[in-house]
């Protein structure tokens, strides 16, 4: 009987869910109870509250941050989603400081961030579509171009664009892709491979002095599509110069002008734009085309750097076709991740 009583007492200890729940409630009451009757909770954490309001202001008014000094506005917009990471830091400080003022102030940056990016937290991918496109900056220094080509081709894209093609590596890509893609064209350092016929291939002048953009007509069963492939100039972040993007911005204007003069109503732009959809400097392009990732993608779709993606600077942009789904492909031998999208060709466009 004594042994049985001992076992009963042990079994009803911390292993009892009700007992554990009671302990958790006591801890929460004790933590919150420390705030009761403390009139300083409204006076403490004013600096934290001010930082929270400043964070909200930067995110809400990012388009008004000037680019006159070091392209600060574009730099902010490139990494804008990551500003949300400051919220849990400020929340922790507010809790440690027991500041009700800071906690209330944090509602504002949380609301702004959710307004800007909340929609990207949900999987909006759909089904259907009749054309899959993909693009990949393969990296000129890629040590395994054949493996990279095979990996991207395995995604099943009907139309594939490659950027940063090294002249000596082009034959390797052509050989690796020839079985799946009977049609292809290479202009300078960019190329287009397609299961459907390609015609009207020409370079697009993006004012760089060498060929890093092209235009072609892809004839699908549902009609012709103008496909642009582009690799805009790289940008750099320098302490003495800030976000150096002048040449990129100039090329973006030239590419946007070329697309605006396109006669075909169905247009798809594939490439490394070295900028995000938030970057105002790409407005000449983004004002004409929309991103399937933003419309029907899953998450942010960051593509660079491949080792720890922080920004989506590789883009698929469309008009005249209906985005159905968008996704990021597994890493290859490049420092970029390949991206893909499936669209439905609008047969009413002519």
From TrEMBL:
Domain of life where this protein originates: Bacteria
Signal sequence, renumbered to the chain: none
Protein name according to UniProt: Endonuclease/exonuclease/phosphatase family protein
GO molecular function terms attached to this record: endonuclease activity
Transmembrane segments: 45-63, 79-96, 103-122
Span of domain Endonuclease/exonuclease/phosphatase: 134-336
Organism: Streptomyces ardesiacus
Record InterPro entries: Endo/exonu/phosph_ase_sf, Endo/exonuclease/phosphatase
Pfam families: Exo_endo_phos
Keywords, in A-Z order: Endonuclease, Hydrolase, Membrane, Nuclease, Transmembrane, Transmembrane helix
SUPFAM superfamilies: DNase I-like
